[in-house]
Structure formats: C-alpha cells, structure tokens
Amino acid sequence: MADFLVIKLPASDTAARWIVADGNGTVKTQVTTGTLAEARAAAPDLPVIALVPGGDVATMNVDLPIKSGAKLRAAVPYALEDQLATDVDDLHFAMGAHRESGLLPVAIVDRSAMDGWLERLQDAGVHPYRVVADYHGVQRVPNTINLFATGAAVMLNDGGDLEFAIEGVQPSDALGFAGLLEDARPAETTEPQADSSADDEPASVAARHLVAWCDAAAAEAYQHDFNALRNELSSVDVHLMDDDGFARLAATIAAGAGINLLQGPYGKKTEIAGVLRPWRIAAGLLVGALLIGLAGKGVDYVQLTRQQAALEQQYSALYQQLTGDSRIPADPIGTADSLMRQLSGNSGNTRQVFLPSLMELATAVSQHREATVEAISYRAGVIDIRLTAPDVATLDKIQQLVGDSGRFSASIQATNQDEDGNVNSRIQIRETGA
C-alpha cells in the first residue's frame, strides 16, 4: 500500500507534528515535532495528508434526491442553509461518500479558515493531497460510541451518521448534545417478564457502548464523569494513551477515512502539461513516424508524377509520329483503339497486330526501366522500335520477353554504342510465322 506523510496543522504558529502511515492504517514512523518546512523535508516524495483543527469544521448530513454531479454540489449549501448561522457564500462545502443510511455527509468550513490553512502550507512548500478534519480520524464502529478526550477537546463518532469535535465540555455533555443518552439503557418495567433474563434488553432499544481514549490529564479530569456514564450506557471502557492520540487519528485517515476538503474551488486543477509529460517520448516518436510516412508518400507522389509525365510525353511523340497530329487526344485509349483499327484497315477479318504487340513491348520494357523507347513505327504488320539500353544483355532480355508470349517474335536488327556507353538498337516485332 502507498505511504502518506500525515501532518497535523497547528492551530497557530506553534510546532506541527507529523508521522508516516500507509493505506492499511499502519504507522511507519514515530511522531515528530517541528516546522511545516521540516515536515515536508522529512519525506519529500510522499503525498501529504494535512489534518486541520476539527473545532473549525462541522460535519452535517443531508438527504437529497440528487445522488451525484454538479447539481448535487450546487444544492447542498441551500439544503443546509437553515441550520447554519453563517451566510453560505462565506462557507466551503465538501461532500463525502453516502452512508449506509443513505445520508450524505458534508464537511463545512469557513472559507477564510480554509484559505489560511492552505496559505500556511504553501508558504512551507507543502502541497497537500488531502485536507481532513482531525476528528474524522476517530474510528467508526457500529453500535459503539468512540470518543477521544485530549486537552480541552472531545471528539466523538457514534458509529452511525454522527461525528464532531467540541471544546470546553465533559464527555457526558458531548453525548447529551448528540442525543446519545436518551433511552441508552432499557427502562424499568413494573411487571417481570417470565421469559426474560436480567441481562436482556428490549429489542426496540439499541445497546450503547462507549469506548473512550484519553490522555492522562483527561482521564483524571473526567473520572467521575465516566463513572456516571456507566449508569447511563450499556458499557464504558476507558483507555489511557501516552499522547494525544495523533498517531491513531492519522492512521485511520491514512486508511481512507474522512472527507477531503480539497473540493470545488479548492480542488486540484489538472495541468495538461503534467498529464502529457509521461507521454512526451511516445508522442514524439508518433509524430516522427507520421512525418516520415508523409515524406515517403510525398516522394512516391513526385516519382509517380514524373513517370506519368514521361509516359504522356512518349505517348504524344508516338501519336504524332503515327498521325502527324501534334495535339494530345483527350481519350488516349479510345484514340489508340481507333488508330489500330485504321492501321489494320478496319476489317473484321484482318488480325489486329499493332496494339497487342505494343502491349507486349510495354510489358517487356516495364521490367527493364533502364531501357528507353526512342521511336516506334508500324507498317504492314511489322513494328520497328528504336531502343536505348545500358547494355546488350538488357536488349536480349527484352527480345526474349516479347517472344515468350508465343504470338510475337522480336529480332535485333542493329546495335551501336554511343559515347556515353549506352547501346542504341533497332528491334522488329512481328507475329510468329508472319
């Protein structure tokens, strides 16, 4: 489980205290006292939970049909307005998780107090992960009242929906204030019940058990009060603590108890840069891959454009040579078909030679792009082609590819080598057996 640095914010400029506890509620270090800056330096890498004085934070319950979202946050202040003596505009409201009873707990604090706590923490370089009232660290145990009495403060959790901190009163006053002493023990009956024992309590009255945690001074001061409460409650257990119980409160809150006051206007703002920072390398690689892909597509486009221009140029030269017309036809394929019919006499019995032989030549030359067709002429079923190739071997391969079709044969009529080392040749293509 994750570890947390839990700092108890002092009520004034007195020393702070801190401890390290994990998410299971296990205390990892001793309680240490010092300044807030020293507390931050003690565990600079751990998330901080700040405990603020519970006397400045009220926890109330509200029952609203809205279960979550912005509408619930907007409705909470006005649902509690009649129970508060301060204008709701001056208060900060933080919501907890719905209780088993269906009620929604709400922590309420004056905005000026909240601003003061955060300012003190930030001045010391402390940026808390959670801010929680200290009395939210009193454990919640069903059907049991848990009470902390230290110094002048009494912190109470009734095991259900009630939790608060109050100063300057005795434990019995705190229980009476919460209405926990009414019908705490079974009422006396005038007629004995034949089937009941002396230890049975009526089913309609919930048994009340008090577990009190006190420092030495509080245990002595409230000794008579606890004895009186034993006559009011089902049981009273008093445990003596060596300190003020800060370690116990911190461990419970580190385990997830309490309402985080950092909500609404005090909630942490999501920094886009911080969210994206872990992904910057992956994003850079992705952008680089996209740029490389686009560059490759651009190169392919340029090459294809050049090839298309070269083919158009060759087509235009061939068309002009065959027809004497310098205009480029709008429909090259249709024009070539029409020209073939004209050259063949447009007879249904005359075998078409020109276009099929030209296709065989195009297939052969496409496999040897280093060869260039310089000129083509057609007459009486024979095609004369002037080719330029890097060597005689390339010419032989082109000749062989044309002959592989079985319908046409190609023969090299003449070759000569130019000053650049290229081989100029003339090849004739005709139907086999013609």
Please describe what this structure looks like.
The chain is an alpha+beta fold and 434 residues long. The chain folds into three domains: 3-182 and 205-271, Nucleotidyltransferase, domain 5, CATH 3.30.420; 279-328; 329-434, General secretion pathway protein M, EpsM (Gyrase A, domain 2). The protein contains twelve helices and 17 strands. The strands form four sheets. A five-stranded mixed β-sheet has the order 3-2-1-4-8. The chain has a five-stranded mixed β-sheet with strand order 11-10-9-12-13. Strand 14 (372-379) and strand 15 (382-389) form a beta hairpin. The chain starts with a strand and ends with a strand. 25% of the residues are buried. Mean pLDDT is 84; it is low at 186-205 and 346-350.
Estimate the helix proportion, in percent: 25-40%
Looking at the structure, the CATH topology of the largest domain is Nucleotidyltransferase, domain 5
Largest sheet at a glance?
Answer: 5 strands, mixed
User: What is the CA-atom radius of gyration, in angstroms?
Assistant: 47 Å
Strand content: 15-25%
Cα shape? rod-shaped
What structural class do the secondary elements suggest?
A: alpha+beta
Whole-Å distance between the termini? 92 Å
Number of domains: 3
Low-confidence stretches: 186-205, 346-350
Number of continuous helical runs: 12
CATH architecture of the largest domain: 2-Layer Sandwich
Strand order of the largest sheet: 3-2-1-4-8
Number of strands: 17
The overall pLDDT average reads 84
Query: Helix-strand pattern, N to C?
Result: EEEHEEHEEHEEEEHEHHEHHHHHEEHEE
CATH class of the largest domain: Alpha Beta
